[in-house]
């Protein structure tokens, strides 16, 4: 999995006054959990753009001013309810020998026969929750729809992989091909026309 480096400065004070001062200076207060004790630091708000405002999943390297680095994953975000500015970020430390839980984006591969015949593809799960060692975390999970006909579903069991564990029930539908509204209406109209032609249903009188 691709990694993003966040350059930060360790915080000496974690009170409300210092936190407000950080935000006024365009910085975001952060906490790194998972070690002996939480590590409080701050980073420039702009440094989170490639991590937060993207559908992709990334691991993180937190590089502090004292030269130390910490491998981590994004755990939680807090946004301002009006401005949507990032208020606070929580990270969780990662270790090579310990499994992590992450949400991995689903990408579509192939052309569905059902879609080409008038069906509509519905992506029920844009991300899948998995558990794996850091080295086995994939950038994305690929959903091959090349065999899906109208009415077919792709369940989470189709994505079983020895490198990670899927944290969903077996009956979870990842994507499916449904008959589109336009195709459904066309089919209903065709049935009505057949009944009218056969004389089993009276035609709707034309408006005067």
Tell me what the structure shows:
The protein is 17% helix and 40% strand. With 208 residues, the protein is of the alpha+beta class. It has two domains: 3-94, Ribosomal Protein L25, Chain P (Beta Barrel), CATH 2.40.240; 101-198, Ribosomal protein L25, C-terminal domain (RNA Polymerase Alpha Subunit, Chain A, domain 2). A hairpin with a 5-residue loop joins strand 2 (27-33) and strand 3. The longest helix is centred in the last third of the chain and has 18 residues, at 181-198. The radius of gyration is 25 Å and the shape is elongated. The termini are far apart. It holds the Pfam family Ribosomal_L25p.
List descriptors.
six-stranded mixed beta barrel, 5S rRNA binding, Ribosomal Protein L25, Chain P, 208 residues, four-stranded mixed sheet, Ribosomal_bL25_long, single chain, Large ribosomal subunit protein bL25, RNA Polymerase Alpha Subunit, Chain A, domain 2, structural constituent of ribosome, 2 domains, alpha+beta, Ribosomal_bL25/Gln-tRNA_synth
């Amino acid at each position: 999995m691709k990694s993003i480096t966040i350059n930060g400065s360790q915080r000496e004070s974690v009170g409300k006054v210092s936190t407000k001062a950080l935000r006024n200076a365009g910085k975001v207060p952060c906490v790194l959990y998972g070690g002996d004790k939480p590590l409080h630091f701050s980073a420039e708000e702009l440094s989170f753009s490639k991590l937060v405002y993207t559908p992709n999943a990334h691991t993180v390297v937190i590089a502090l001013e004292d030269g130390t680095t910490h491998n981590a994953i994004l755990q939680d975000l807090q946004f301002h309810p009006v401005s949507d500015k990032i208020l606070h970020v929580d990270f969780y430390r990662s270790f090579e020998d310990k499994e992590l839980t992450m949400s991995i984006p689903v990408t579509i591969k192939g052309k569905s026969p059902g879609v080409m015949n008038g069906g509509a593809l519905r992506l029920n799960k844009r991300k899948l929750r998995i558990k794996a060692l850091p080295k086995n975390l994939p950038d994305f999970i690929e959903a091959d729809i090349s065999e899906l006909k109208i009415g077919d579903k792709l369940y989470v069991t189709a994505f079983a992989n020895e490198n990670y564990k899927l944290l969903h029930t077996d009956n979870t539908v990842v994507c499916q091909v449904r008959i589109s509204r336009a195709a459904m209406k066309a089919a209903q109209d065709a049935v009505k026309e057949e009944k009218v032609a056969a004389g089993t249903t009276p035609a709707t009188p034309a408006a005067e």
